[in-house]
Amino acid sequence: MAATKRKSSGRKYGKAASKSVKRAMHKRKAGTLKSGKGRHPKVKSREQAIAIGLSEAREAGAKVPRKRSTKKSSAKKGGAKKGGSKRSSARKSAAKKGGRASAAKRQSRSRAAKKGARKRAASR
Known about the structure:
Elements lengths: L14 H16 L15 H15 L13 H4 L8 H12 L2 H24 L1
């Protein structure tokens, strides 16, 4: 049996996305495209203009592939995974539960209490 070639699934980006990028590029050319709200500087980079256009298209619900992750995996870098401390694992579990700030506060309070107890014991 001969292997059949798969056809690509069509357009990666929708027409609305290309319109949004086109509008951003025209604004950049005119010198009116800015990188954010308020007094942010004008966008001069072509890549940044495209990113702004795609971001706006994404917000509007146009067909745009999701963003590439910026993190590099340790396997790609060739580095070994570091062993985490108790504190970092506690923070990770708290972050999963959605209460990271309160867990961090609790830890800092307990550290401060221990430090105060040590100072009191040393002064005796």
